[in-house]
Amino acid sequence: MAFKFVTFAALVAVARAGLIASPAVSYHAAPALAPVAKIAYASAPLVAAAPIAKVAYAAHPEEYDPNPQYSFSYGISDALTGDSKSQHESRSGDVVQGSYSLIDADGFKRTVDYTADPHHGFNAVVHR
């Protein structure tokens, strides 16, 4: 414990002595009503700059599917490690239904059945 205290005290001493540089990036809020210094500029001849080229991009509207539908599933069963998990999910419009299962660290199988829709939100039921 004494070693930790001595190490901490040495670190504080080095930091206070200025041997550790301040961070390269710092976040400081500017004063709300800081005085503004007036700077006098010498007049210089104006030079016309080259015109900036404007690039026109054609707007391609993204494809929109008003009734998206998909279905997928996968499963893993590794006899060597004992890893076993699976999932299946399907969507029709704004309604998603699915289920996944896995083996918990305590050896029990956990299965989660879930649904999601705009009216009821996300709901999940867990089974062991």
Give structural notes:
The chain has 128 residues and is mainly β. 12% of the residues lie in helices and 34% in strands. It is built from one helix and five strands; from the N terminus they run αβββββ. The protein has one helix spanning 2-17, and strands at 69-77, 84-92, 95-103, 109-117, 121-127. It has a five-stranded antiparallel β-sheet, with no helix packed on it. The radius of gyration is 32 Å and the shape is flat. The two termini are 46 Å apart. The relative contact order is 0.08.
Beta-strand percent range: 25-35%
Taken in chain order, the helices and strands follow as HEEEEE
Q: Describe the largest sheet.
A: 5 strands, antiparallel
Quaternary state of this entry equals single chain
Supply the helix-strand structural class: mainly beta
User: How many DSSP helices?
Assistant: 1
* Strand order, sheet with most strands: 1-2-3-4-5
Mean pLDDT comes to 78
- Cα Rg: 32 Å
Can you give the helix content as a percent range?
10-25%
Task: Please tally the β strands and state the result.
Answer: 5
Low-confidence stretches: none
Envelope shape = flat
Report the span from N to C terminus.
46 Å
Summarize the structure.
The protein is mostly beta strands. It has one helix spanning 2-17; strands spanning 69-77, 84-92, 95-103, 109-117, 121-127. The model has no long low-confidence stretch (mean pLDDT 78).
What is the topology?
Elements: H1 2-17, E1 69-77, E2 84-92, E3 95-103, E4 109-117, E5 121-127
Antiparallel strand pairs: 1-2, 2-3, 3-4, 4-5
